[in-house]
C-alpha cells in the first residue's frame, strides 16, 4: 500500500458511516490523484477551474468532482457540464449563473451555500443572518436547475479548539434551522461540508457529512 493509500485508509477509519471524504487535490499532480484513485477514493475537491479542467480531461471519468474554492461567474460554464457538487455558492448572483448554465446543459447542479462563521475577515460567504433573510423570500424557487443540498463553512484558522468547536456548532445549528424552515427542500438539504486536515475531528462531533482533507492525504503542497 502506498503512502497516500495508507493516509486515506487511516482517515476513513475515523469517519462515521454518514460522512464522506473529499480528497482535496488542488496543486497536487495527476499521478498523486491516481494513487488515491487506485486505493478506492472517488471524490476529489479542486478550487481552481483551470486545474480542475486539466485533471478532468486526464483522469478516469467515474471520479466525482467537487468544486470547493471561490467560483467566479465567468468560469461557471466550464465546470457545470460535469461537476458533481459546488460547495462554495456565496451569492444569489453566482447561483443564478449556475442555474442558467445548467439549463443549457439540461442538468440540475447540486450546490452548497457557503456560510462565513470564522472570526477572520472573509470576502466570501453569506453570514448566518444574511442567509436566513435571503432564504425567507423563497428565492430558490426561481432556480429550477440548481438543487441546494446544504451548507459549507470554514472555521477560524486557530489553535483554539473551543473557538473552532463553537463555530462548527453555529454552522450545524443554522443547518438544522434552515432544514426545518420550509424555505429549502428538506429532502435534498442533507449535506454539511465542514472540517479540513487540522480540524475535521472537531467537525465530526457536529455531524459533518463531507470532510475536505488535502494535506493529511497528499502532504504539503508545491505552490
Secondary structure: elements and pairs:
Elements (H helix, E strand, L loop, with lengths): L2 H12 L5 E5 L5 H9 L4 E4 L2 H10 L5 E4 L8 H4 L5 E5 L2 H14 L3 E8 L11 H8 L10 E9 L6 H19 L11 E3 L6 H6 L4 E4 L1 H4 L5
Parallel strand pairs: 1-2, 1-8, 2-3, 3-4, 4-5, 5-6, 6-7
Task: Kindly describe this structure.
- 39% of the residues lie in helices and 19% in strands.
- The model has no long low-confidence stretch (mean pLDDT 96).
- It is of the alpha/beta class and 223 residues long.
- The chain has helices at 3-14, 30-38, 49-58, 76-79, 92-105, 128-135, 161-179, 200-205, 215-218; strands at 20-24, 43-46, 64-67, 85-89, 109-116, 146-154, 191-193, 210-213.
- The longest helix is centred in the last third of the chain and has 19 residues, at 161-179.
- The chain starts with a helix and ends in a 5-residue tail after the last helix.
Amino acid at each position: 500500500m502506498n503512502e497516500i493509500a495508507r493516509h486515506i485508509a487511516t482517515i476513513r477509519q475515523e469517519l462515521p458511516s454518514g460522512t464522506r471524504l473529499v480528497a482535496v487535490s488542488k496543486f497536487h499532480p495527476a499521478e498523486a490523484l491516481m494513487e488515491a484513485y487506485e486505493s478506492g477514493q472517488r471524490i476529489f475537491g479542486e478550487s481552481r477551474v483551470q486545474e480542475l479542467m486539466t485533471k478532468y480531461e486526464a483522469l478516469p471519468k467515474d471520479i466525482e468532482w467537487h468544486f470547493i474554492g471561490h467560483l467566479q461567474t465567468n468560469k461557471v460554464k466550464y465546470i457545470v457540464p460535469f461537476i458533481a457538487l459546488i460547495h462554495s455558492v456565496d451569492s444569489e448572483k453566482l447561483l443564478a449563473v449556475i442555474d442558467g448554465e445548467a439549463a443549457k446543459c439540461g442538468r440540475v447542479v447540486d450546490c452548497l451555500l457557503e456560510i462565513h462563521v470564522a472570526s477572520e475577515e472573509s470576502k466570501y460567504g453569506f453570514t448566518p443572518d444574511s442567509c436566513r433573510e435571503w432564504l425567507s423570500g423563497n428565492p430558490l424557487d426561481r432556480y429550477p436547475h440548481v438543487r441546494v443540498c446544504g451548507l459549507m463553512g470554514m472555521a477560524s484558522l486557530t489553535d483554539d479548539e473551543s473557538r473552532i468547536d463553537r463555530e462548527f456548532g453555529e454552522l450545524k445549528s443554522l443547518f438544522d434551522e434552515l432544514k426545518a424552515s420550509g424555505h429549502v427542500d428538506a429532502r435534498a438539504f442533507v449535506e454539511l461540508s465542514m472540517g479540513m486536515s487540522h480540524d475535521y475531528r472537531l467537525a465530526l462531533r457536529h455531524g459533518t457529512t463531507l470532510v475536505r482533507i488535502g494535506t493529511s492525504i497528499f502532504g504539503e503542497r508545491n505552490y
